[in-house]
Amino acid sequence: MKNIGFIGTGIMGAAMAGHLMEAGFSVSVYNRTKAKAEGLIAKGAKWCESPGACAKGQDVVITIVGYPKDVEEVYLGQNGILENAASGAYVVDMTTSSPILAEKIFTAAQAKGIHAVDAPVTGGDIGAKNATLSILVGGEESAFTALQPVFAAMGKNLVYMGSAGAGQKAKACNQIAIAGALAGACEAYAYAKASGIDLEKTFKAISAGAAGSFQMSNVVRRGLDGDFAPGFMMKHFGKDLAIGTETSAAYGTALPVLGQVLSEVRQMERQGAGDKGTQALLKYYGIE
């Protein structure tokens, strides 16, 4: 595998594509907003005018786009990936998307002799920049094995989860756990503020003990410092939590904490915080 088409060069994708170039792969890129790909183009990536053009002639096509509707469009739409990728190519969706859609893409790809895997990631912008992402993979295990050199250029924890859609199901588990951890940390500081104790002393007192978490020390910490720039956008977090609530209903399980956090995130989106980082959930609790 030498030639990779990479579609989606946002906060995460630009760093991931850059690591692939550093690892020696020949990378072609497409993004709806070309300006977001300019840094990669300047480093030698080839610009393509459409998802289909980016898929044509590639050994591997990687996507990390916004929403399930975007995934469906770039894979199954007119002049999309499956219409243009060669038989025997590997297509890898690293977007957090619907497991049901992942299964649909797998079936459509299989009919064309194309190997499709769902491979959402965890680790946020820091993991993307440092090439330390966890990559959760669903699809044929032989495809997971073949893609090891590609995944290793972007991440450290590479986990084969099972058949098509299993990677997306594992990512939903990850986001469900984050929802509780993030909201719990925000509530702790809301309580500290309401009760009149110092927020910085509270952070020092509880972040290093049993209450500590990645969300507290890396995400909420940014918000306490007044930094609400996105490592992971609130609107994309809302999309992820909605996938969890919708599919959990289909699987017959109730997730009340997830539903509550989703309602909080949606309220923040309505208040204009959709493009801010998830640490902006502090604002829901009155902490600026």
Description:
The chain starts with a strand and ends with a helix. 54% of the residues lie in helices and 14% in strands. Strands 3-2-1-4-5-6 form a six-stranded parallel β-sheet. By secondary structure, it is of the alpha/beta class. It has two domains: 3-163, Rossmann fold; 170-284, N-(1-d-carboxylethyl)-l-norvaline Dehydrogenase, domain 2, CATH 1.10.1040. The chain is built from 15 helices and nine strands. It is globular, with a radius of gyration of 19 Å. The longest helix has 30 residues, at 166-195. It has helices at 11-22, 38-42, 51-55, 68-76, 81-84, 99-111, 124-130, 141-146, 148-152, 166-195, 199-206, 214-224, 234-251, 256-273, 281-284, and strands spanning 3-7, 26-30, 46-47, 60-63, 90-93, 115-118, 121-122, 133-138, 155-162.
